[in-house]
Amino acid sequence: MRAMGYYPTDHEIKCMIDEVRQCAMSNEGRTTTHVNLDTFVKLFVNHRPVYGIGKNNIEDAFKVLTGGDEDITRDDLLNMLMTEGEDGGMKMIEIEKALTFLTGEQLV
Questions:
Q1: CB 3.0-4.6 Å disulfide test: which of 6, 11, 56, 84 passes with 48?
Q2: What are the pLDDT digits (tens) for 28-67?
Q3: Distance between CA 84 and CA 86 in Å, rounded?
Q4: Mean pLDDT across the stretch 8-27?
Q5: Closest Cα partner for 35 from 56, 10, 53, 18?
Q6: Domains of the chain by residue range
Q7: pTM for the structure as a whole
Q8: Closest Cα partner for 83 from 92, 72, 93, 96?
Q9: Which own/partner pairs from 8-11 qualify as long-range (CB within 8 Å, at least 24 positions apart)?
Q10: DSSP string, 55-106
Q11: Rounded alpha-carbon distances, angstroms, from residue 62 to 36, 79, 93
């Protein structure tokens, strides 16, 4: 899903896994650890956001991250990105990729 531009949270992934397990249980009476292409497409269509991430989504995320402050130092922002959120934060390479994607510019 990430290769197709949908980056589900850990919670969203858990919901999708639960959905697949419940569907297999009700249809076949057994649990499953695999999905076929049809099931994958259904999960993708049903769970991905309808619209892409826009400027307002980024602004909202920034407000949450900074506690509403409008100004934050570069070092404080990097520290928050690397220590907060799922899995204890992002790695520097992930931050660089995200910023390159958002700005369209290669970072130095």
A1: 6
A2: 777 777 788 888 888 888 888 777 667 787 788 778 877 8
A3: 7
A4: 84
A5: 18
A6: 2-47, 58-103
A7: 0.45
A8: 92
A9: 8/47, 8/48, 9/86, 10/86, 10/87
A10: HHHHHHHHHHHHTT-S---HHHHHHHHHHSSGGGS--HHHHHHHHHHHHSS-
A11: 37, 13, 19
b/e map 34-60, b = 16+ CB within 10 Å: ebeeebeeebeeeebeeeeeeeeeeee
CB 26 within 8 A of CB 32: no
Q: Rg of the chain's alpha carbons, rounded to an integer?
A: 18
Q: Which contiguous run of DSSP H or E holds residue 24? A: helix 10-28
Mean pLDDT of the chain: 81
